[in-house]
Each structure stands twice: as structure tokens, then as C-alpha cells.
Amino acid sequence: MALIGGFTLVAAGAAPFALSNSASAVPSQSDRTATLSAHDSASAAYPVGVTDSAQPSGQAPPTTSAIRGYRLRSVTKFSGSSIPPGWIVFTGKPSGDPGDQWAANHVTVSNNMLELNSFQDPKFNNEWVTGGVCQCATAAHTYGAYFVRSRITGPGPTQVEMLWPTAGWPPEVDFAETYGATNLAQATLHYGNSNQTIHKNITINMTAWHTWGIVWTPTSITYTVDGRIWSTITESSIIPHQPMSLHIQQQTWCSSGSACPTSPQSTDINWVAEYTVGSTPATNTTAPTTTTTLLSTSTTTSTTTTTTTTTTTAPLTTSTAPISVGSFARNSALLSRSVKAEVRHLARVITDRHDSAVTFTGYANGAMGRARALALSIERANRVKWYLESQLASIGDHGVSVVAIGAGDDASSGVIAQADSGNVVALLK
Prior knowledge:
By secondary structure, this protein is mainly beta. The protein has helices spanning 337-353, 370-394, and strands at residues 2-11, 17-23, 32-34, 50-51, 59-60, 70-76, 88-91, 107-110, 113-121, 127-129, 132-134, 144-152, 158-165, 172-177, 184-191, 196-203, 210-216, 221-225, 228-233, 244-251, 265-277, 293-301, 323-327, 357-362, 401-406, 423-428. The strands form 4 sheets. It has an 11-stranded antiparallel beta sheet, with no helix packed on it. Strands 6, 8, 9, 10, 12, 17, 18, 19 and 21 form a 9-stranded antiparallel beta sheet that branches. Helix 1 crosses helix 2.
């Protein structure tokens, strides 16, 4: 989706800070269309969930062994009454879409659900205001699988579940976008400097609960719904090869005459499960009996955009003492020789100990403002993460989950006081 301008993101447990963003347009009417055959609806099973009548959707999150060759990285159940750590709420009015407005009070958590609520808000002169979130307070990563258990309550605002890059645009991968309808969803891969797009469409009742999935590898993108593949992209040259994070948002296009509500509507999310490639084989879940009808695919060139950011979250709990990974030059995220040497040593330690996960927490030194400190701290953590991943790959260790988060210039996380030194801290488990 495309929105151009500035908005504010509110992280769980953090004050707002301003970033820039971009947004999306409706599909081109001149798309070349090719009808999919029944062969495209492969019967391979992917996660749907675990039957649980206590859940609003009737399904609890999938198990750790739901996909062969993958490990469960995180599950968000929305079981509390506030936005959980790792998630950020969108607020603000994108300048590229004057008919839309995001506000924090349009995002709620209750009854085991995250709700994005579109309604005419008196605080904004009765404009149609919507909700949006991203799982970008924890580090994005390259490749993996995401599954979102969701539904919409009715027509009006478009809702989209997508992957958004941490730097630059395109790429973007939308894997469940409605454009205001209730009987269809569209998946779109944005790629190339001129924003080329590949659209995939499916006819389906969006007011019913579904588990939407995307499996992203170096050579393919697989779109799933309720455990079944409904489309794939296998042109490896156009597959994204950079870190991305999960975004879920509503949006209105009232000023363009589309996706404009006539009554309050919600996007409900029961849970989100994220998997990364792991070395432990797993058993696929059984495919459900839910039937979907394939519609069409299309290819076009157009313009779009969306939103992204990174910020702070609490480090993962571990019984291992934190390990300092050197200091950075002031206001810099470049890896020095000494930092690289420490990361190479850390890779050997992780392999020798058979650790399965490492979390890097970056810190920023100096008084540079909250937004800049957060951005610098996450960049430092990410650079260490990427270098460690390359070192682990070089010694054949592909079964480690690596996460990078930023703490800005705040050393109050209880891990270690690193703000003054501008350090990165590793926690192993």
C-alpha cells in the first residue's frame, strides 16, 4: 500500500517518535491477467492452528514443529489488554492520502484479540480514522514464514497484512489485502527500482476467520490460506533478499472514491506466529477442509508504499550472562576490526555450546535525541547480527535464531549499562 508523508509510531512501553513513510494505490486497471489452473492449488499442508474452543477464532497458535525445517521464532497471542512488546502502533495523517488518519485509540487489545478499528472519530472532526501496527520493535530478518489468524467485520476500509523492508523500497510483499471488499484478497509482490508488481487474487469470505500465511525463501514466495497453498512466485531474481518485518494495517481511500467506510468496521487478529529456517526437522500440520476458489493473477507496473521503523523492546530472558560485543565510534554503526574479531569469536562460542538463539541489544551513546538514538542502536545491533549470521554460515551452523533490537540511549533495561559506551550486548540461549 502507498502513503507518502510523515506519521508517528508509538511503541509498546515507549514514547512516540516521528518517522517518514509512504503508502499504496489501488491495483492498476490495465493489468495483464492470466487465470490460474487447479494445479496451482497444491495440497501441501501449512500451519492453520490448533483447535481450541476458548480462542475467538476457534484455533490456538500452531506448534513449534508446524513446518518441516523451520523453528518457531515468536508467537503473539494478544492475551492482555495492551499492545505487547515488540509491536508498534501507527499514528498520524499520511500526506499522500488525505482521506486517511491513523490513531492509537483505534488499536485495542482485549478478549485474546488485537483489533484495528475504523470509525468516525470526533477527535479528528469525524474523519474516518483507522488503526495499524507493525512487529518492528524487534529486528526484522531475511526469509522465514509468517502466519496471521484474522478476519474483517465488514466492507469499507482496506486491510493489508504485509512484509516491509527495514531500509529502502521496494521490495514489499502484501499477502492479504482487501481494497475495501469482503469477498476477495490480493497478494502483491513489489520489486525493482521502477516498482514492478505481481498481483495474485483469491475469492474468499474475509469476514470468516482464516489463517493467512507467507513462506519466504531465497528462491520463492508461497502464499497460503488455512493451511493450503493458493499461489506461488518462483522467479528467484525478483524475490526480496533483505530484512523485512510484519505490518498489519487498515487504510481508507475516501478522497479517491474507494475503500471508504459507511459504518464502523474492524480487523480482528487472534494471533501471529513467525518461523525462521532451522535445522530441526518438523512435521507439517494436517490441511483443513476449508475450500477456497482461485481467481486470477496479474502483472503490472505502478507506484505504492507503506510504513516502517524500528525501536526498543525488552531483551529475551536467558540464563547466560550478557556478553559485550565491543564499542562503536561515537555516532557510528560501522564494525571495527576489534568488533568483527569479537563477533567471529562469538560465532565459535555459539557453535561449540550448541546455542539455539542469540539476541543483540544495541545502545547509542551521546545526547542525540530519542529518534536518532533508537535508529542508531538498532542499526548497530543489525550490523552485528548480519556479520554473525555470515560467520555462522561460513562454519556450517544454520540452526541459530539471531534477533537484533535497539535500546536507544537508555541503559535501564536491566541488562547492562551500555549507553555511555555505545555498545552491543549479546544474550545467548
